Known about the structure:
With 120 residues, the protein is mainly α. The protein has helices at residues 2-12, 17-24, 28-36, 43-52, 57-61, 70-87, 92-119. The radius of gyration is 19 Å and the shape is elongated.
Amino acid sequence: MFPYRLKQLRENAGLTQDELAKKLNLTQSTIAYYESGRKMPTLENAIIIAKLFDISFDYLLGLSNDRKTIKQSKEITSTTDKLSEEKHNLSPENQEEVKKYIELLKLREKDSLNDDNKKR
């Protein structure tokens, strides 16, 4: 899973193997080995890669489909709490619109995860 995720992250960031290698102070051939599965990074390099792409370590290694780091999850929870409070200040019609929009976002995210899984 790591090779696939690394290549996907690199390509989504618009980086070549050489550009990523320079950011990580590695060689292009090392990145090629990582992406082919012929080599695995050291723990230190895997952590650096996760931080570079601002994703969870578990996502990078394929242990989770959740890209969010613990910090990001806490920020999302805080934002969700604030939105929940604000929702009560809206008219019933607008509260219903908010619910529909949330459902739409959930469907989009589910579709996105399904697309990622199909590519594997």
